[in-house]
Design goal:
Helix content is 38%, strand content 19%. It is of the alpha+beta class. The longest helix is centred in the middle third of the chain and has 21 residues.
Length: 238
Amino acid sequence: MAKRSGAKEEHKVWGNVFDPFTQKTVYKLITQGHFEGLQSPISIGKEANIFSALRKDGSKIMAKIYRLETCDFNRMYDYIKSDVRFSHIKKGKRNIVFLWVQREYRNLMKARKAGVNVPIPIAFSNNVLVLEFIGENEIIAPKLKDSEVKDKKAFFDKIVLNMKKLHKVGLVHADLSAFNILNNNQNPVFIDFSQTTTIEDPRAAEYLERDVRNIATYFRKIGLDVDEKKTKEKIIKN
């Protein structure tokens, strides 16, 4: 386990995200009492790695750490620039990453308040986001693409309901798929909210259609008859 004393070589092995600045950010969050130390990688991604982290009471949370040097900054900027909530974008790669993390935290907060099934956002600092651990018996819930859905129609309907709740508070996930939904005891949990944007975004309708298409395509693959047009109408209907 990587604790406050640090295990720098071990950090380097864990996805090459632990540059000195990131280590300081992690230790700051530890000092603030959000967790005691990082445990092990949960997910290794192109732009961010997710680690389990241990709290004082023995429970687990998750730390999502964005890389500061290898993120796709142009893609990030392309999503943020049309978001009216972030019109104060400052130049610089790090500033974009920090806004990206702040954006994900704010999106999760808003989604959670709207009753959308998402991990509870706990804290953020610079390029690190701290989240609720989703799973049980210290095992992370599987992604939808890697899990068995017992009642396809019921699971699909739950996804649509969560998309509707999100839309009702003026948000579109913009990256929803079987990769970004966890199957937690046959209940969908939406994750990865950094791309989520407002319905005022000029491309919001395009993003929503893509989300619907991704979900419909997956459920058709596993044997459910899905009408994309009707599904979208359910989501946007008041």
